[in-house]
Predict the structure.
Amino acid sequence: MSTGYRVFSALWLGCGVRKRLVSGIMKIHLSRDFFTGIGWQDRQHRELIRRVNTFLSAVDNGEGDQELKRLFYFLDDYVVIHFDAEEQAMGEFDHPETTAHVQEHTRFIEDLERLKEEFERSSSCREVARRAGEYLTRWLTDHIKGTDKRLGMFLKERI
Ligand SMILES: [Fe+2]
Ligand SMILES: [Fe+2]
């Protein structure tokens, strides 16, 4: 087999392999464990999860690069709104975990920025979107069920 043919077949197979990899990302199932008991926070989490699940559906359905980018950036706008609201509440009520909580938000925004750069650099085949989907699912689930729930419990005692 010539080197040229091997390179061509690897590229051709590469897309096929990645195509199979994109399927099967679990959507976030909004169970009771996600609820903090603070109305505005729960409403914003619901909207955030709705947007993430829409993005995951687009990855699974094989949407084109432009649509994947659009949905990912659309999600990013809402993340900023939501983090601002939580950070304002933490400041107002002097939450003892404020510094650590804000650091988690900051690192997440930095990771989203890195993923955006990867989206811009990537030529095709939805590998970046698949990794972004897995990261979003894992991070949001852990953050909401842990850090945000502790904030919710703290706010409930003060509102
Ligand atoms: Fe949150
Ligand atoms: Fe948070």
